[in-house]
Amino acid sequence: MAIGNAVQRSSFVYVYDEKGHQLCTLSAGAGPQDGLKGYTASTVNIRRGAFIYTYDGKGQHISTTPAR
Description:
This protein is an all-beta fold.
């Protein structure tokens, strides 16, 4: 199922499908620059520390990239 929305609330990111059903919950980190950086129909990007973590709609880790 495709990602319809991703919302950060406190230290968690909630991912929803196009119908508004929750797909997964991800940790947003605790640092001042940590948190949701963006999402597409198939991925969610979250910064934690010096890295950007990419997840799919099921909350499975896809990749890690150094943050700039």
